[in-house]
Amino acid sequence: MNKTVKKIGIILLFIIILPVILLTFNELNTLSDNEKVLEEIYADQLEAVLFSVNQYSEDVVSSWATQIDILLEKLEHTDGYKSKELIDSFFNNYPSLAMIMLADSIKDERLIFIYASETSFVYNELKVELNNEYQKILSANEKTIRRLYTYKRGNYRKIETMRSDSLKDTEFLVFLNEAPNRNELRGIILYPQMFIYRILSPKIQEVGQDEFVISIFNREKNFQFNSAKGSPVKTIQQERSLWIFPEYKVGITIKGKTIEEVVRDRAVTNIVMISLLALILIIGVWIVYRNVKREVELAQIKSDFVSSVSHELRTPLALISMFSETLEMNRVKSDEKRQEYYSIISQEANRLGRIVNTILNFSKMEAGKRKFQFEEKDLNEIVEQMFSNYKFHLKNKNFQFDFFPGENIPKVKTDQEAVSEAIINLIDNAVKYSDDKKEIIIKTGTDYNFAYIEVADKGIGISSEDQKKIFDKFFRVSTGLVHNAKGTGLGLTLVKHIMDAHNGKIRLKSKLGEGSTFILLFPIKLNT
Predict the structure, then answer these.
(1) What percent of the chain is modeled with pLDDT above 70?
(2) I need a labelling partner for 322 at 20 to 30 A (CA). Which of 24, 145, 146, 358 fits?
(3) Residue 295 belongs to what H/E stretch?
């Protein structure tokens, strides 16, 4: 039976756990692919946002270049106070603009600078230092400026940023006059941080909205502007250089959780869900296995019960048949022998009756049809009667059988027949499972709110493991004298049922090799 149950358990485990293993393996394999797709989607989205910010900043500067062309054209036809007004008005409209530079070519030694409150376009000796500084920048970026001429020949005006370590708080951008027959160099000197605050700030707030935090920063200058004020900026996931300000970076951060955190949370969620699924399935397997095991064990117990009962019934029937046939054929000559045969027939008939009664009582108990007649009874009187009935029988089997009645035991509501049946079952068990020490002691007394009947023996005892199952139906201890002792395995089940009907309890004290003590506890408070 154990091998069959184990096979069933292994099969169930294999059938249910295998899909979980396959699902886990598949999830782990696809997890990295899914993460890669998720990262690519975010990367593309972030790239689009960064491109939008860069394109916007370039479009703004391009529009400024056009406005500068218009301003310069107006200044060519205006002089004096009106020129000053035009310049002041222009710079008031573009506060991020520091100066405008004009040059005929890369090698022009007389650069012109226009800025607010300037009233003259002629070279001024006071600007020599400024003139020399920007001439050096133009010379250092000659190749870049040459490309501007190439772009213009293709009917495209390009704005290039001039790289220089001498520029501190400004950025220098150069473009060519848009007129097809003129190639003057024109420069825009900007305050980049002011440009970011005044021009790019609304745009990046619009682009970021509630999903992203867009940052523009320059680590060397310890500058950083965030689209969401008051929002803590985590590690920037994507960053690109601003096209017009290469030393400044545009970075983007997802609000809330980062991509890594999203992927990690998703992985943890999947693993937790798979683990919960595996746990539920394992619990399910365990429940099914336990039920199957219980059913198999019950089937085996029932089979053993049928075999045992058949043997129990067959033995007294055979003896009754044999001795009655002997008497019927008048083969017994002496009265003494005849009386012995009568006694054996009577004993076996009583034994047969007890077996049948046990089975019938168990059947009634299972069907819930057993009725009890409760009356106030003296436990000493019930036990005394049972002691008197069994004393002679047990002494013939060489048992020391004693009864020690307690004093001042209040009457309790009991069904005398049922209590007598419980005591008989306990005595029968004590007889069956006693080995060399044949001793049975019955005591009565009170214990707090209970009156009790105690049946103790010096038999083989019951292991702690079997004590948990001893009151289960059909259960019989599988060690010791069980193979020699006859019984149905229903005796203690009936005792438990009887005590439950009395709202009582059963205590068991037992140790292997030292005997067992069963204590039936009847509540005294039910007597009030």
Answers:
(1) 79
(2) 358
(3) helix 259-328
**CB neighbours (10 Å) of residue 392?**
9
Q: Which amino acid is at 317?
A: L
Cα separation, 134 vs 141, in Å, equals: 11
Q: Name the residue among 504, 488, 501, 487 with its Cα closest to residue 451.
A: 504
Show the tokens assigned to 81. Answer: 């106070």
Highest mean pLDDT among 15-19, 190-194, 417-421: 190-194
Q: Helix (H, G, I), strand (E, B), or coil: what is residue 191?
A: coil
Is the pTM for the entire model greater than 0.70? no
**In whole angstroms, how far apart are CA 347 and each of 323, 340, 342, 489, 502?**
12, 11, 9, 21, 31
Domains delineated in the chain: 207-257 (no CATH), 371-527 (3.30.565.10)
Is residue 244 classed exposed, middle or buried when 0-12, 13-18 and 19+ CB atoms within 10 A define those classes? buried
* Residue whose token pair is 């420069």: 187
Distance separating alpha carbons of residues 302 and 295, to the nearest angstrom = 10
CB contact at 8 A, 398 and 436 = no
| Amino acid (1-letter code) at residue 384 | E
Contact at 8 Å (CB) between 507 and 518?
yes
What SS3 state is found at 77?
Answer: coil
pLDDT band at residue 443 under the 50/70/90 scheme: very high
Q: How far apart are CA 337 and CA 322, in angstroms?
A: 14
pLDDT tens per residue, range 274-308: 778 777 877 877 787 778 777 777 777 676 666 66
Predicted pLDDT of residue 5? 62
What pLDDT is attached to residue 527?
44
* Backbone dihedral angles phi then psi of residue 81, each to the nearest 5 degrees: -65, -35
Q: Rounded distance, CA 491 to CA 472, Å? A: 10
Residue 504 or 50, more confident: 504
Q: Is 238 helix (H, G, I), strand (E, B) or coil?
A: strand
The residue type at 510: S
Question: Rounded to whole angstroms, how far apart are CA atoms 512 and 281?
Answer: 40
